[in-house]
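Table 4 source record.
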Amino acid sequence: MPRKLSSTAAAVVAGAFAAAATGASANADPAPRGGTTSSDMGDQAISSEIGLATGGRVTPGGLRIAGHYLYKLSDLDWFDSSAAFTFGSGDGACFRDRDDDVICKHGVADGIAVEISARIRHYFAADLMFRPFVHAGLGIGLVRFSDDDVAGVAIPLHGGGGLRVAIHPSIAMVFEGDLALGIGSFNRGIGVEPQLGFTVTGGAEFRLR
């Protein structure tokens, strides 16, 4: 095989298959048997993701944009801090019932929110290119439904999982789903209400060091 073609093939596989076959690569230490994270993850990484969040009642939903900062704790466990923004419709959906209580029945894509969260991401033993993971953590966010003049603070628990696909020694694609379950405290006499939402996102992850 000509040298140029060999070089191109090596770049495409990004050293992953070479590391699996020979136990070494130009940018990484060998991956131990049983599967751990490879050197393409480094010690720190950032990622940006976009997707959809579903809500309802007083849980915001709509377009979800999130950024993550990842810090390595062990070969398979990472600290994941994130900031997420939800952009949904501001249409009103609250009314007063016969007891003069405010009731809100927003749809799955209503509301605006910003949230910060801290999670632990655990990778399962996998090959060098594909790594499934699960995550769990806690967040705090601000929620607003503009046309109803309803706002509040939400504290959700997060749990979910996803898949990381390495495409380059320092770049990977990440796809994940997240279930949020918690409580929120709202104005206009609404008080404490449950929070329940599901999010699906995808994006790119970049190694920092």
